Amino acid sequence: KRPDVVITPGDHGGLIVKPTLKLTKIDVDTIRDMAAAYGHINATIVVREDIDVEQMLDVLAGNRVYIKAVMAINKVDLARPGQLEAVQEMHKQYRNVPVSAATGYGMEELKQAIYDTIDMIRIYLKPQGQEADMDIPLIVKRGNTVGDVCELIHRDFKNNFRYAMVWGKSAKFPGQTVGMDHKVQDEDVLCIRVKRRPPRPEAWPRFLICRPAPICI
Question: What are the structural domain ranges in the chain?
Fold first, then answer.
């Protein structure tokens, strides 16, 4: 993530550095010199994180792209006492999950961490009059609505939408009737009702037919 440093340009007063905590990896004079080298003459620099020189350079350059990440710490079954904690402390800027590929320890936690980090959720579809398919979820972005799900399955579902029924975290009660603007949540079960018979499964996009879950570990 981007270092918690805010640079506010001013009209006068020179460069003022205001750390909100004790800096152990860089001093105020170095921050001031680096800011001046990047063309800042009058500005207030508020530092809310114990940054180092490289992080300050990232702030000044403004060209670093930050992406979400999950670190899997493997072979924890072979770790010596205190070794795992030391590795976690070294990489505490990441969400880290201890796992063991040999024993399967932590694999479910890792899957959940990946889903949470990439902001994707699982939706289970329930055909009308049938049981929900709980084996193969539909993967959608967090914050998507019932309308987005309809569009992803087939445009006819959205064009001929009547209402939907939802079971799960987003429902006030099991089987709640909702419209297209209802936001779905992870592991919701969704039954979509349309004005006429929707396309047969063989007419659906190929990626929706017997597709495996996108994350298999």
Answer: 5-61, 70-117, 120-208
